[in-house]
Design a protein that fits this description.
Strand order of the largest sheet: 3-2-5-6-7-8
Order of helices and strands: EEHEEHHEHEHEHEHEHEHEHEHEHHHH
Low-confidence stretches: none
Structural class: alpha/beta
Radius of gyration: 22 Å
Length: 371
């Protein structure tokens, strides 16, 4: 049974839906606006006020015993001018936009979207409010799956923009290769298990390639050290065959993966969001997800997301020869040539601009809301 979670601010100008990514969303809120954060995943939010109970009764009468009845009652009680979330594949944001047409409702993209499972969660009623996306690619995905969207603005990655705004000058560029780990626990999910198999092969290819190059190898881990079981499993995944002496395993912690990737000569990934973000920064990236099993239905999604990627950043197969050829080509290529060959893809997948995304969203709120 879910626990009750109290909302401490009873009134605010901005309501942030969910604590996930709320630290980043807060940076989008103009200084003169007050805000509340509502936890929606770990329990049932409530406000200890009679007015919430009255509005909840009215909304249950309107919608039945559904999540949108509770969330709309909370909006009634807090009465924000802006509702915003970093959980862009949540059904509730589109619902709140329909229920409150005179409020500004915003969803901010927090990860790559390539299938109905990731974007729509299998719900045909899914819709997007004002949507701040990574790039032009999301516009094509929305058209492809006939997703309803109020308006879409491609501004790049919020999290990557905050990282670049605060950390890039302090990160030294080193002769290193960063492998972004997309490690999962073994499950019944055939796609995840296939990814794990391919990821291990890519890792071993990297070790073999590096015998003749002697770059420092960094593994940007998916797990935090505090996640004991997950961290141990991921650590063991990369430390078989006495490889720990040859690599640096970097646990997830406060932009650690961004720092590892940004400071490296080449970034290797299956298809992580971070890989696309670093591509947008102009980093040399090798994407490996095109090597997944052709029999998997997900292969169609992979082929589509990579359809505007130049061949130089895509691993075609898992042979050592193919891996060596792609890595050597990226190492030899001058940065100017790389930026030229990837220009169209970088602009399509991950917009980068002078004004960082959090400031773009802040200005959008100021332009559309008065307090």
């Amino acid at each position: 049974m879910k626990k009750l979670i109290r909302v401490f601010r009873f009134e605010s100008d901005v309501l942030i839906i969910d604590t996930v990514g709320s630290d980043f969303v807060i940076k989008c809120i103009p200084a003169e606006f007050s805000y509340s954060v509502v936890e929606v995943r770990k329990g049932i939010p409530y406000i200890p006020r009679l007015f919430l109970f009255i509005r909840l009764c009215a909304r249950v009468s309107q919608f039945g015993l559904k999540n949108k009845a509770l969330m709309s009652a909370i909006v009634d009680s807090i009465n924000p001018k802006v509702i915003i979330s970093f959980i862009d594949n949540s059904l509730i944001m589109g619902q709140l936009d329909s229920i409150f047409p005179h409020k500004l409702v915003i969803s901010i993209q927090n990860g790559t979207r390539m299938s109905t499972g990731g974007f729509l969660n299998g719900n045909p009623n899914f819709m997007l409010p004002h949507y701040f996306s990574f790039g032009e690619y999301e516009k094509d995905v929305i058209k492809r799956y006939h997703i309803k969207c109020k308006e879409i603005y491609n501004i790049g990655s919020l999290k990557a923009g905050i990282f670049l705004d605060n950390h890039h000058e302090s990160i030294l560029q080193t002769d290193s290769i960063c492998l972004i780990s997309q490690h999962w626990m073994i499950t019944d999910d055939e796609v995840k298990n296939d990814y794990m198999e391919k990821l291990k092969c890519v890792f071993l290819n990297l070790l073999s390639w590096n015998k003749n190059h002697e770059y420092k190898i960094k593994i940007a881990m998916r797990s935090k050290k505090s996640a004991t079981v997950d961290y141990k499993n991921e650590f063991n995944f990369y430390s078989d065959n006495n490889t720990t002496k040859k690599i640096e395993l970097i646990a997830e912690n406060n932009f650690s993966s961004y720092k590892a990737g940004y400071g490296s000569s080449i970034v290797i990934t299956m298809d992580s969001t971070l890989g696309f973000e670093l591509l947008g920064f102009g980093k040399k990236v090798l994407f490996c997800a095109a090597t997944i099993d052709n029999a998997l239905q997900h292969k169609e999604n992979i082929d589509y997301i990579f359809h505007k990627m130049p061949d130089i950043v895509l691993l075609d197969n898992l042979t050592q020869k193919e891996f060596d050829n792609k890595m050597n080509a990226l190492i030899r290529m001058k940065n100017e040539e790389y930026l030229s060959q990837t220009k169209e893809a970088r602009e399509y997948y991950m917009k980068c601009q002078t004004l960082p995304p959090h400031k773009v969203i802040s200005e959008f709120i100021l332009d559309n809301v008065q307090i």
